[in-house]
Design goal:
Length: 389
């Protein structure tokens, strides 16, 4: 039985399920543009896989795992006979045992297949009876287990995309990171990505040059970003003068961020303290408004009075080269004071929960205008402010 189709209409899990349930032996070809992958099955189980993607090559899998050095790999590739697979050559030279190669091969097969879960389309063809090339070292994996992990990765991938900067963003190492703990434990993948970033690199170049697949690269980036070890590079606020349309978009974004954040704080106080919590919220602004010179003539501290029109009025009264920075500085001071009363009246546990809510809410708002937020440094500005809480 042979069959063909496109991943737009038939999902990868459905294809694997069919091959596994009918205990088929053969090869599944999947292609999208220049990218091509082959997955071999025997009795429904996955036994071997190849890929045209550089990060999927067996030698690069070994490098990623730290199982071989670059000079050793280069020497083996240079000396191995034409047609001989690298795994067999490594065993032949005594650098690996067959069991060690099998462990690495299992990882290679999994990574090749996991990469397919990110494909929204691609032509596939299953040819029954076709077996892997001679001299290949083969293993046996249950494709259903791979599908479960691949599906989990898809869900996680959607969350990662909400945090990651766009392809044209410059990613830089943080020179003076604010660490949450005295010790940071980095996985090997995270160290590889930090070394790749070096003095700074565009996001799209990191994805292209990484030995890791796109999912693992992005997961490592998010981990070290959340640890405060990298930042998104950009010009300073003072170096830019927005046009009128861009200013309106910026103010709308800031209005949404602060309106939602203040709403979270007010809701927490009212939920636990009722009208007393609302009163404390209002009185906090009144008692501290001299600390916010930009806001004291415009706000009473009540959530319902903060919106685009108010912020736009404030912005129009400020010089172009300073308005965004000054608005953020004043509102972040106010946000910090509101959070102090959360900790004072509701305790440390609810304070931490509220801060977590603010981080999620702020990131969601920033993601709605990712390009604009990146250009004006809003992500780093809010990340720095929330990290210090």
């Amino acid at each position: 039985m042979s069959f063909t189709g496109n991943l737009k209409t038939v999902s990868l899990p459905d294809i694997f399920q069919l091959i596994f349930s009918t205990k088929k032996t053969g090869v599944l070809y999947v292609a999208k543009g220049e990218s091509k992958k082959e997955i071999y099955f025997r009795g429904g189980f996955t036994i071997y896989a190849t890929s045209s993607a550089e990060q999927d090559l067996f030698g690069n899998i070994l490098l990623k795992m730290g199982r071989i050095s670059k000079p050793e790999l280069t020497k083996v590739l240079k000396e191995k006979r034409d047609g001989k697979k690298i795994g067999a050559a490594l065993v032949e030279k005594g650098l690996f045992t067959r069991d060690e190669i099998l462990d690495c091969l299992r990882m290679q097969i999994e990574e090749i297949i996991y990469g397919l879960f990110g494909w929204k389309n691609g032509d596939f063809k299953f040819i029954e009876g076709k077996t892997p090339p001679p001299e290949t070292i083969q293993t046996e994996l249950n494709p259903m287990n791979i599908i479960m992990e691949g599906t989990r990765r898809i869900d996680e991938w959607e969350e990662l995309k909400k945090i990651l900067p766009p392809d044209e963003a410059i990613v830089e190492l943080e020179r003076n990171p604010i660490l949450k703990t005295e010790q940071i434990r980095l996985e090997r993948n995270e160290i590889l990505i930090m070394a790749l970033i070096g003095s700074g690199k565009k996001m799209e170049d990191i994805l292209r040059e990484s030995l890791l697949d796109q999912f693992l690269t992005c997961k490592s980036l998010v981990n070290i970003m959340q640890a405060g070890l990298i930042k998104i590079g950009k010009p300073r606020f003072e170096d830019k003068k927005p046009n009128i349309d861009e200013t309106e978009e910026l103010i709308k974004l800031l209005a949404n961020i602060y309106k939602h954040n203040f709403g979270v704080i007010l809701a927490s106080l009212k939920d636990k303290m009722g009208t007393k919590g609302e009163k404390i919220y209002t009185e906090t602004f009144q008692s501290r408004k001299s600390e916010y010179p930009l806001l004291s003539d415009h706000l009473t501290g009540r959530d319902g009075e903060l919106g685009f029109e108010l912020l736009f009025k404030i912005a129009k009264s400020l010089p172009d080269d300073a308005k965004i920075h000054r608005i953020i500085a004043n509102f972040n001071d106010l946000l910090s004071d509101y959070l102090n009363i959360i900790q004072k009246y509701l305790g440390k546990k609810l304070y931490k929960r509220t801060v977590s809510q603010l981080k999620i809410q702020t990131q969601n708002n920033i993601n709605s205008k990712k390009q604009l937020a990146l250009k004006w440094g809003l992500e780093e500005e809010f990340s720095r402010a929330l990290r210090s809480l």
